[in-house]
Amino acid sequence: MPSSVAATLDLERAIEAFREAIDQALSIGDVGEWDGVQLHQREQSIRQASLVLAGQCIALLIHRLATNTQAHRAASERTKGMRHPGSEGVGRQEIRVTTVGNVGLKLRLAFVKGASKKRRKGRRVGQRGKALQGSYYPFLEWLGMSERVSPLVWTTVAQMGMLSSSFAQARDGLRDWGIRMSEGRVQSLVYRFGEAGDAIRQRAIEQMRAGDLATGHWLIGQRVVMAVDGGRARIRRNKRGKRLKSGRRGYKGQWKEPKLLTIYAVDEQGKRLKHLDIPLTNDGTMASVEGFMELLQMHCVRLGLIHAQQILLVSDGAEWIWSRIPTLLKTLGVNPERVIELIDFYHATTHLYTFADAAFSKTSEAKAWAKRACSQLKRGQINGLIKRMKTLASTARSKKKRTLAHKTLLYFSEQPQRFDYQRVQSLKLPIGSGAIESLIRQVINLRIKGTGKFWLKHHAELILLCRCQWAAGAWQAFCSNILRAKLSPVAKDNVLPFPSPQKVAA
Q1: What is the pTM of this model?
Q2: pLDDT in tens, 111-169
Q3: Starting from the edge strand earliest in sequence, which strands make up the sheet with 103-113, in order?
Q4: What's 342-373 look like in SS3?
Q5: Residue 304: left if φ>0, alpha if ψ -120 to 50, beta else—which one?
Q6: Rg for the chain (alpha carbons), in Å?
Q7: Residue 319: which of 225, 438, 418, 447 has the closest Cα?
Q8: Number of H-type helices and E-type strands within the chain
Q9: Structural domain boundaries of the chain?
Q10: Is the distance from CB of 164 to CB of 157 less than 8 angstroms?
Q11: How far apart are CA 408 and CA 296, in angstroms?
Q12: Is the pLDDT at 192 greater than 80, yes or no?
């Protein structure tokens, strides 16, 4: 496929060019030369011609909108919220938009220029951030083409760049579908898409801080599971000092814990509900614990967690989780009697095996005891188990093993209420945190974490956000939110993944 195809803006010419390409691809010729390779090549030719035709049709549609006076009025009206004091219209400028099939369309569009440096106001000396938003094309912002690619191209590039193991792999995969651009351009479009999504999320958090985020109605009367956990990713930090001869500064890798959450409803049999009326929520952040707690609080409010019939909070034994989340739920007004706190069963069993290795000198005895202890724990006999562990901990042969045994014992004795697996099973709720473990693998381990991967913190945050929405099955809604994010008024069906919840009737 050529690097770029000029838009003909003539449907008949586009169809005729398509027909010529297809006629050639459909010719059989010498049957003896046919095999799987030959058919594969013809398939590629047909797909290429089809993509170019699709791109020509899309370019024609965009051109018709661009030459429609009412369309420009609508664009100006819907993007007026982007205009700030000091901005001014400076006439029309020529730009180029790329559609599928690598079809390039030239347009002359009205341009709004941001305030010049001399006219900028509102930023004090030493204040960080932009004083005013920059320049923009109302028509492009209106139709989700701010990056000078069609919405289909932008969302496809974002999806491929987010899901592929690298941006180079995404670039190669996009070429097969009529989108040809450099690796750097792919990376830029992915990050810009993620930044637009993050801006939506930040607005919801700011509304929550101000008390303007309405309590949602999604979880009224539902049984809800909330799971939280952390992963591992390496962040790059620039080295101090002078740059090297190469002009680069160099960097150091630092391990960081991305924190993820998943909130979903289950039916009477404990199976996850999968429909838009009760959305699955996945999210995460590279921020501090405090930043994560704000994110979690925002989702609890917008989903209406306070109206849930029952809430199961399941996680591992991380101190930062149990010292904060139960308190947050109380602050939000959730009835403590509706909340069940549970440590993931499989994390608990690893501690039992650790205890057994410290308390018993023989491996066979340790394994046999740990197996019985796991069964006892699952049946809800935590008090009897703790009593037996206290006796065994004092009989460990070495000081080092006694210390380890007592430390493991405290894991159970200090929070026995979080090991009531018998009750949770009787309620047909999950006793493990498999949902969040799976999310960590899909979101972090398969893209962000890896040998030789060092991320800028901000970029890792954007990939994490996008992959969370994809894993939740909310990708299309996420794309719709981004394409409409700067328009006013906000579309009524702009409900996922960060909906504008309706207030629940008293």
Answers
A1: 0.89
A2: 998 876 555 455 544 444 444 457 899 999 999 999 999 999 999 999 999 999 999 99
A3: 5-6, 103-113, 88-98
A4: EECHHHHHHHHHHHHHHHCCCHHHHHHHHHHH
A5: left
A6: 29
A7: 418
A8: 18, 10
A9: 1-114+133-148, 345-423
A10: no
A11: 30
A12: yes
